[in-house]
Amino acid sequence: MVDIPNRFLNALVGGWQLGSILTYQTGFPITINSNARDTSNIGAGFDRPNATGVSPVLPRGQQTTEHFFNTAGFSAQVFGTFGNVGRNTMIGPRILDVDASLIKDFHFSEQKMLQFRWETFNATNHPNWGNPDTNFYSAGFGSIGSTRVAMRQMQFALKIIF
């Protein structure tokens, strides 16, 4: 014999599914360029500035969206040269993202079911910054003006299966 209050309590509280995805990535390699001007005079747009000897890397606590790296680490190359800054010499912002879901199936019979589904993307509402402006001649050189993913998004759905 099935006790109805326990059956009701089990239907209400039991069988919940909790899921999550944690994404953590260090930043992607980025290349500092000076493509806005054809200083190398070859017409191809492969120019890069020169390294000044000052470290362009800022410690994590000093990085902001206005100054992601130290722009004093770069100077304009001499006309007719490519510049000496290498390819992929800087690392962009890291990515930290948590997605979560909560799902419950309510079975009324073998073929009839109601599914409750709540999902959230970027649950911590943590900004994941886009890459900084890497063009040496740009007014925004070294600053970040975008995010990689949208801020927190939630979705709620009820699905009925007959």
Q: How would you summarize the topology of this molecule?
A:
Layout (H helix, E strand, L loop, with lengths): L3 H10 L3 E9 L3 E2 L19 E2 L22 E2 L14 E2 L3 E13 L5 E9 L31 E9 L1
Antiparallel strand pairs: 1-6, 2-5, 3-4, 6-7, 7-8
Structural domain count: 1
Give average pLDDT, whole number.
86
The string of secondary-structure elements, in order, is HEEEEEEEE
Biggest sheet strand order reads 1-6-7-8
What separation lies between the terminal Cα atoms? 28 Å
Which consecutive residue ranges, at least 5 long each, have pLDDT under 50? Answer: none
Radius of gyration: 26 Å
Question: What is the helical fraction, as a range of percent?
Answer: under 10%
Could you explain how this protein is built, in words?
- The protein has 162 residues and is mainly beta.
- The chain is 6% helix and 30% strand.
- The protein has one domain (4-161).
- The protein has one helix at 4-13; strands at 17-25, 29-30, 50-51, 74-75, 90-91, 95-107, 113-121, 153-161.
- The strands form three sheets. It has a four-stranded antiparallel sheet, with no helix packed on it.
- Strand 6 (95-107) and strand 7 form a beta hairpin.
- The radius of gyration is 26 Å and the shape is elongated.
Brief overview, please?
This protein has one helix and eight strands, in the order αββββββββ. The protein is mostly beta strands. It is elongated, with a radius of gyration of 26 Å.
